[in-house]
Amino acid sequence: MLTACMLPLRMLGLLMLMLSLCDADSICPTELNPLTLDVPRVIEKYGASVEVNCTSTEADHNGMYWRIGNTDSRVIIGESLISQSVSLSEWNVTVECRIMLNETHECSKELEITIYQNPTVAVFPVNRAVEGTLFELQCNITDVAPVQNLFVRWFKDNQTIRTDNFTNTTTTPVSESSTLTVNISRAEHGAEFRCEAQLDFGPHGPQLPVDSEIYIVSVNYAPEFKNTSEDFFVHEGDDVTLNCDAEGRPQPTFHWKHDGKKLSDTNNLNITRVNTSGTYNCSAINSLGSITKEIHVHVTMNIPAAPAVITTPAVITTPAVITTPEPYKPRGCPLVLTPAKIVVRFGDPVSINCSTSVAVPIQLGWEVTSGNKRDNGTSVTWSLEKVEDWSIKSVCFITYGVNGIDQQCFVELDITLYKSPDIVSVSALDSGPVMVGTEIQLKCDIINVTPVQTLTVRWYRGTDILRTDVLDENRRIPVNMSSIFNFTAERDYNGAEFKCEAELQLETNRPDLGHNLTSSPYTAVVHFAPEINEGTYTKEVNLDGHVTLNCSAEGNPLPDLHWNYTTAENVRETTRGHQKSLTITGATSTNAGFYICVATNKVGEVTSTVTLKMKGQISVFPWWLLIGLIVVFIFIVIVVFIVLKHYKKLGRYSFVLDKDNHGSDIPMTPQSNGTEDTV
């Protein structure tokens, strides 16, 4: 019977031992766990620090402590609340509040930690944007954590067109990418595509900033003529300018031919003193194609002067000498254009009046390619509801009689067509960050603008003008232009905003129309080595006093900070923002010494030393040195004294051995003049 009862008791003891060795959480169900964290979940940036309070509802316990990773803090007995500062400088850090219910049982409550790091974003094209093809943009998201909370949104002209998320569950920083494919068309030239990367922790998490980058697409297409065939009518002996009038991207090159002969490689062909009609072939070529069109020039004959009218008097007494008077050559053409010079925005209306001082002109009119004409006898008005021809040419002519001779002259309208740029943008030829002392090259793209010879580009840093470019190119149709600005990166340029402004300096009669356009700013990213703000210094503290040593640094990328020092129980390290501090409580003489702050980033590393001294404490090193020297000196003096005394005795006495009494005391006999005296 006794044996039968002992077996269950032994099994019960074994069961109790197994339970005592089990993990604390296995014997602490959620509903019975006495521990509560004031912040059950922490979402903080890598490198930050948090303060956590742990409260116990169990008053009778054997102590509470914190377990951070594999390290346990000091056990606190008799308290129901303990606090802990946690540095989030390890990606997989674990934090537990633990309580010892008795000698064998513990409970724990783990802090749920999410450490994040905002990404950097870069957008670049995978292929060339050609009309009618699939165009790909890639968004690279670098150094982001945790990636499962990352959302990437694609925008086109501020309209969301796609959203990506990621299933990777790693907690350390990774790099991801998202690709957008667009069936591109010419109408999307200048469209702003951007990708936006954001860590989203839901409505109760931190509202983190959005990292975004813009890419302005330039759509390429083969050359196209606005008019496939053109006819020009000119007077014999006049000059004429033919315009190829083609557009394409990249900007096409041009070739002119007449009767199989090559004439020019410019978009305009100037022909002087035309005397025969002919057909001219113009070809426009770029990397995507080639087209050719014919331009027909028709030469009209000048109106001949009317024959002289000869009148004969009624009575002729002598034979008449018949002479033909010289044609009348007026000093100037009796035509006035109002306005005499006009600057018109492409697509706007235009109206010009041509008037004459001739009372009854034979003929007064306009020779134009299009538009309406209204004749009022001594004036004729030409108007156009919409100027849509870049090669527009308008000539007012008059035929009138002078002394019975028909004269003809004309005045060509001085008209300038302009178009303000569609887009002005700034980009870096090397989009990545640069080091201090290296060269940054920025490019200002001015899209679809004319006339270029009136275009001025100004470069700004903030509100300061850095450089002004005047572009020297004679183009009558809209083109894409660019200005390059080189400068050496300085530390102060990090975060500085650079922009360019394109202005057409025109004398227009419409001051309400803006002729300048400013780009969005380009923010420079300059990397430089760390610099510690506090520098090297000395600090004093009273015995049993408290002192805090601070260290913060500037640098790009943001430096990592750490302290090198002799560890002690009363030294505590905390991080607040970009500052790392050491707090010493109840200072003792062992805390005196050197504390070295080290700031490191990818560019370099610097250190700063803080010397901590105890107030009222005498420096021991000089005194020990002095005491040591004194002891050595006294020792030397004693040795010298003994030696001298010994030698002095040897000079005045001799020792005589008593042969009969070995081992007995030997009397010393004084010597005199070398003679030994006996007793």
UniProtKB/TrEMBL annotation:
- Chief location: membrane
Matching entries from PROSITE patterns are given as: IG_LIKE
Q: Where in the cell is it found?
A: Membrane
Look up keyword Nuclease and say if it applies. Answer: no
As for membrane topology, the entry says: Single-pass type I membrane protein
Instruction: Keyword check for Ribosomal protein, yes or no.
Output: no
Q: Which domain of life is it from?
A: Eukaryota
InterPro entries linked to this entry: ICAM_VCAM, ICAM_VCAM_N, Ig-like_dom, Ig-like_dom_sf, Ig-like_fold, Ig_C1-set, Ig_I-set, Ig_sub
Q: Which GO terms describe its biological process?
A: cell-cell adhesion
Q: Which GO terms describe its cellular component?
A: membrane
Which residues does the UniProt record annotate as the domain Ig-like?
A: 119-198, 223-298, 421-518, 521-613
Keyword annotations: Cell adhesion, Disulfide bond, Glycoprotein, Immunoglobulin domain, Membrane, Repeat, Signal, Transmembrane, Transmembrane helix
Which residue spans traverse the membrane? 621-644
What GO molecular function terms would the record report?
Answer: integrin binding
Q: Which residues form the signal peptide?
A: 1-24
Annotated protein name in UniProt = Ig-like domain-containing protein
